[in-house]
Queue: 2 jobs
Job 1
Amino acid sequence: MAISLGELAVRFGCELRGEPDALVERVATLTNADARSVAFLAEERNRRQLMETRAGVVVLDRESAADCPTAALICSNPRATFARIVALLHPAPTQAAGIHPNAVVAPSARIDPSARVGAFSVIGERVEIGADAVIGPHCSLEQDVKLAQGVRLVARVTLCHGVQIGARTLIQPGAVVGADGFGFAREDGQWLKIPQVGTVRVGPDVEIGANTTIDRGAIEDTIIEEGVKLDNQIQIGHNCRIGAHTAIAGCTGISGSTVIGKHCMIGGAVAMAGHVTIADHVIITGNAMVTGSVLRPGVYSSGIPLEESHVWRRQVARFKRLDRLVKRVQTLERGAGSAQGEDDE
Amino acid sequence: MAISLGELAVRFGCELRGEPDALVERVATLTNADARSVAFLAEERNRRQLMETRAGVVVLDRESAADCPTAALICSNPRATFARIVALLHPAPTQAAGIHPNAVVAPSARIDPSARVGAFSVIGERVEIGADAVIGPHCSLEQDVKLAQGVRLVARVTLCHGVQIGARTLIQPGAVVGADGFGFAREDGQWLKIPQVGTVRVGPDVEIGANTTIDRGAIEDTIIEEGVKLDNQIQIGHNCRIGAHTAIAGCTGISGSTVIGKHCMIGGAVAMAGHVTIADHVIITGNAMVTGSVLRPGVYSSGIPLEESHVWRRQVARFKRLDRLVKRVQTLERGAGSAQGEDDE
Amino acid sequence: MAISLGELAVRFGCELRGEPDALVERVATLTNADARSVAFLAEERNRRQLMETRAGVVVLDRESAADCPTAALICSNPRATFARIVALLHPAPTQAAGIHPNAVVAPSARIDPSARVGAFSVIGERVEIGADAVIGPHCSLEQDVKLAQGVRLVARVTLCHGVQIGARTLIQPGAVVGADGFGFAREDGQWLKIPQVGTVRVGPDVEIGANTTIDRGAIEDTIIEEGVKLDNQIQIGHNCRIGAHTAIAGCTGISGSTVIGKHCMIGGAVAMAGHVTIADHVIITGNAMVTGSVLRPGVYSSGIPLEESHVWRRQVARFKRLDRLVKRVQTLERGAGSAQGEDDE
């Protein structure tokens, strides 16, 4: 589909510098774009590519426009405008409604006629599937699952009994929502399973990444609020609550009963203990270790980046001897008569 | 199902403080329980909720009973007693025996008539499935897999050829048991695959979490002993052995040929090297890094919790300059004539 | 299948010390091998087992041969030779060609007659499957996927639209290739999805582990070059490029747009930031944190191994007070008149 720059400017409220009748038909990176492509600049590190681009048009902000050698669509949030242009130029293929003849659907399930159920999916008793929902192949919806309007399960998504998914939520392949939480009582050196009788409630406009797992609650429910974005291979323990519009990057694990506020950004590979509380508007950088609550908005980090191994080993050795170093400093302080009464803990 | 407090006390050997004829029918948290609910107190942090609860009855230990404003079931292990009450009040729905017409079963497979095989599951040649086993939908059991009595595969579990699963073991969706271990020989800068000819033997009463992976052995088998509990998204490399009744929390990765003892507790997101040995009764806290063997029981940790990023960055800078700090202290020691002959390595 | 030591020596170019007519028929570890077994020695730590082995023959290098109490196959790369012997003695069962009657294949798909498609697999429109490819059960190949000759999808592999897989590449169960990258624009405190219009191109002779996820590119493609070996539960973000013959161990996460060179070895549980570049021939040890580019070949590490918790807590406390320690040293230096004008930043 080709569209003119003028129409893009009007549709998305941009100022156009360039020829309104020029046509574009796809998106591309600044480096590889040609005259029929739309590119965008959202990060300072790409400034140089901007200056050399041959794109048909570049979406960018006012300050960057001077460096743009081609037509420009100027707006305040180039990334968001570009997202809309991608959706316009590269629409997802529509999938016909209806239930695949190779799906297995329980008699008591209620499936909106506008919904789609893919091959080899299994729909349990009393499941409800809303209008325009798309269930890809190999999905399993146990009894009493409820999908609101427009939910999309790409493929091979497992929703255990009673799980509720809000409108327009998108779940990538391999995700498991509602498996048992990890709850056991210790008795005579063995583990006795505590049946997990809560479920999972996921709000609208959520995205859940590939192979991400969200456990059902032990007694009450695990909650994912509206607009939350979860990347791949995230683990969310039982009875967590993730606040609205929080985004979490891949490989992060969140132990049970932890509550994360709204509008947080949690990096990848973060390890978060259970029963902690994270305030709204907290940013935690990748690979951080969270063992206690974070009660004020801000940016938080831990983790020490790599070094050449021989340097790193020496640093670790120093670290392991810090205690001794402190004692040596104390000895010097005593000798200098400068001992400040510090026992340093 | 409603049950009287008196019957609960008798069944589970508790002392009842309260009206034996009062009825309860579900479990709830201390905060949200009503007069028909059973709650429990197992952690000191919930003491305040206990004092304000409106539960029909609370399961707790003798010391806490004085703070309980409602009926109490007093026992020595409230968490274990509560686990049994949950199982009584919230029984899992029973699933009819039989092989779903949409399953594919090899002619040489032997499936006990009391077992269940779900829709779209694939049962390979010479597979043996014991009494009362439940195979959910989308499971794949390759040739020569053996499931003992009462095994339950919730859904979408893949067991590769020859894998053996002990009685009553429960496997959550997305788990893969018996995929190839990561074994290659380097030759001329390329990797030559070493075929993995061992398999995986899982003992009885094990639980394996959602999307957890356990690799088959290279030559001999990978072993998970009885009563082991594995949370979600755990990776266990080839030829590991996990000792009986050890519990491992989510996102932990264990490299090949590592041997973990019995009755250990391994936290979440622990990274464990290969070829190490962990003794019995070792506790490793979450996010720890294990590069060598741990030969004595005890509690072990590593990892430094997060700080505000600007503070953290300063701490990392100090860490990276520890070497220089040590040299400065040495200089001072020499000046003070107190040099203790310490070269600090 | 039994084979003589003489034939093994000839086939694999080894020097044989021992009786050429002796027969072996399986592989085993040094410890458990019997007279009909082949074992190998590749690591110094197994020297003791070598000296006590009862194997029919041991594959080892010239320096170790003196310690071998049984027949020996001497070669320069025992691990590689052993890999070939395993493949010879334990061939994978061949699977008949053809499309399972319970597979669903789109009319426009082109499947080579020598390929196999397993039960309950779904093959989308315009998919191309090359000669001798094996698609196990429960696989889903969305539209326009291309598999070259000899690709093997063990079971339950999801390849999203347009994904290309090179010849002989092996993908373990649960892997997801081509799910949406994690790309959003922030607008008014919410996240707007950026449609991910790139795909994933995987080269020949790659292995992808169980439950590993590789996201499709945002605009251009995510690339896995030839001979790359990926262990289980690895996450690779959108627009990464992994260089030829690089091996990555389990649970490692690589954020978007990161480029890893050729012939690298990345340990398990490594957390790698986005937009970084790793040179060729870089080795990164397990659990390292990578926040910036690594531009020179070498061995790199981070992460501090565990200690008994009470010791560890003390070390962390010292670390958190490093700033104060530096100030105390500065005070001493001023007192000693030795202040070197160091403000230590």
Note: Chain A is about 15% helix and 30% strand.
Job 2
Amino acid sequence: MKPMGGFGIALVVSAISLAAYGQPERNPAPVADAEGHLRVPADYHANYHMLGAWAVAADRGQGSKELHVVFASPGTIDAYLRDGHFGDGSVLVKEVFETATGSMTTGTVSHAQTLKGWFVMVRDSKNSHPGNKLWGDGWGWSWFDAANPSKTTSTDYKVNCQPCHVPAKASEWIYVSGYPALRK
Amino acid sequence: MKPMGGFGIALVVSAISLAAYGQPERNPAPVADAEGHLRVPADYHANYHMLGAWAVAADRGQGSKELHVVFASPGTIDAYLRDGHFGDGSVLVKEVFETATGSMTTGTVSHAQTLKGWFVMVRDSKNSHPGNKLWGDGWGWSWFDAANPSKTTSTDYKVNCQPCHVPAKASEWIYVSGYPALRK
């Protein structure tokens, strides 16, 4: 039994060190429970990969009113490059920041000031939760206010989430052209 | 000896799992060699914390010409909140992206398109490299083109780096007002 025990410990160390260096970890933080209630995965800053960033222009004048930073779960990018689509279980987390804008040495500059919340999407091509109004068209969808990353305020993805994604329907509802890491 | 050996393995596992969950790790990737040559730390996406994001407005019309995303080494934010200044060894990494701008469902939106490179700064209040023109005024300073994260193209921080930071001199040359996480 002793050699087996030592081997077991070595395997544990190996799996954890991969996670520490940004490789897929074996036990990622949960993003959905059995009923399909989503939450912001607690480990996304430590274990996800930054996929891209967006600046939404101010309605009047110069500057940006919002900054968005998007993270993808471990393995998402590699699978997309290999298969040409998002693999089931892939998670996207988009941070949404309100900005403040001012004149700086490099010009008119807006910076992330306050986190408003997160958009979370989980790929699900198998329609796993047909009775849940936050799942459909190949994804689980939810918005989370900054104050509560574990309980969504969304009630129906077709009303709360999908309308802004209609122009990206052909690319699995994701604006992949904004994510150069997804291009071969 | 056997009990000691088991205890040693347990300590290793504990240190590595902390790193996997975004806590300070014991052996971060190097950012400077003994002579003070900086490099982009290989682990910053996995182990650093996102400190903030910036959008630089386009010269004409709407949209942003650059997006910047800033990361701080483990412990930097906690030390700043505790002491009111950056602790020696704190590392800041700023990704600089060129953008593409278009009309989207949320308005005029720019997204990170191409990584131009990184600004790296390392806090050094002790003037550790007095003969090195990339160290001084409390920091090591360097720019890295995207093609070479291990060799800077900067030759003199007073010419290549510091001029854009002059308005932030009173806050240790850092635009801390753009980083809400540094506010108590």
Note: Chain A touches chain B through 52 residues (CB under 8 Å).
